[in-house]
Description:
Layout: H1 2-32, H2 34-68, H3 71-87, H4 93-103, H5 107-117, H6 123-133, H7 138-149, H8 153-173, H9 195-208, H10 213-247, H11 250-265, H12 272-280, H13 282-290, H14 297-310, H15 312-323, H16 331-357, H17 368-411
Helix pairs in contact: 2-5, 2-10, 2-17, 3-9, 4-5, 4-6, 5-6, 6-8, 6-16, 7-8, 7-17, 8-14, 8-16, 10-15, 10-17, 11-12, 12-13, 13-14, 14-16
Pfam families: Gate (PF07670)
Transmembrane segments: 12-31, 51-79, 85-108, 129-150, 156-176, 216-238, 244-262, 301-322, 334-352, 388-406
InterPro entries: Gate_dom, Spore_IM_YlbJ
Amino acid sequence: MGHDIGGRGLKQITKTLLLASLSTFIAFSLIRFPDEAFKASIRGLNMWWEVVFPSLLPFFITSELLLAFGVVKFVGILFEPIMRPLFNVPGVGSFGWVMGMASGYPTGAKIASRLREEKQLTRIEAERLVSFTNASSPLFIIGAVSVGFFHDAKLGVLLAAAHYIGNALVGFCMRFHGLKSSRETKPKTNGNFSLIKAFQEMHHTRLKDPRPIGEVLGDAVVNSIKTLVMVGGFIILFSVLTKLLFLVGITPFLAIFFKVFLQIIGLPIDMALPLFSGLFEITIGAQSISGVSTDSILAKAILISFILGFNGFSVQAQVASILAKTDIRFTPYFFARFLHGIFASIIVIILYKPLYLNKQAFGTDDIPVTQQGQAQLFWLDLLELLKQFGPIFTILSLAIAFIILYRRGKQS
């Protein structure tokens, strides 16, 4: 007994020293490199208010409204016969899966935590769900990475296919998570779609929420913006941290070990530093990998697929912060990120020839250049539209949230 207490005390002391050392390191590094840290923070801020905030806010608000009005429950009843056998989660998990793929990080974690708060998922089911619903969006994979960095829309098809197929495989593997330790009872399903039952559940769910529609809308806006402000803070923090690690020489030193690893698996060692950077922040890593002077597109695609599946420590910190408000454990999600990265990298190797080299797979034998050019223009125009109007949308949304909170404060 005393030994256990002593062991826990030593663990807490070690944790205290580690956190204090990290905070001190960041503080002294900021003092030593103020200009570079400022530029890195501006870069993270621009990424957040130009692209992340305006692209995620509509999805977050819509998710809150669909949960409040019972639509998620409706979808859950219909998709129970599909989600339960495949991923061992209730049908409501289909909503988190689709929304996570459409909007990107960290929507899947946000929806899983909300479903857990509403008791629509058990803890084990929520851990299974969050492990495969926190995916990258098509806008980021095709628009930012493939077209923005590589100027190759066709590469985006390969990366997206590997990412989402790998994600589904992770979900299937994680269906076995918690089977031995969990004593939770599984609901019986008859395998049939029942529109009547689905509508009844949707109606009952809406009636259980006593809030008027105006309050529901206000809560959806405020809660979504609060989450996105937290996401923005992590984006800026890790943008600065990644830059500081490089400036003090830690990143180049640790990249030596990555060079050995890449040499063992037969990939260019010049990608060691970009790979290490990508483990912290996906955008920086993907952009750095695209700039490496090598003719091997396959090698670049393999590494980018891994860091997309791994999510990067920046996204993982966002997910950890969201999950901290619930009893959902972070460890299963962290394990699933390695699994997703490995699966996606292997799938890129398998699909590289049919989806990238073989033009017949695209049906573009006659006008491949024209079609690819049109696709690239579409994604570039979409990104440019976000960069142009994203900051205005972000500022207006923050102003609306402030007004809602101010009026509620006066009423109370």
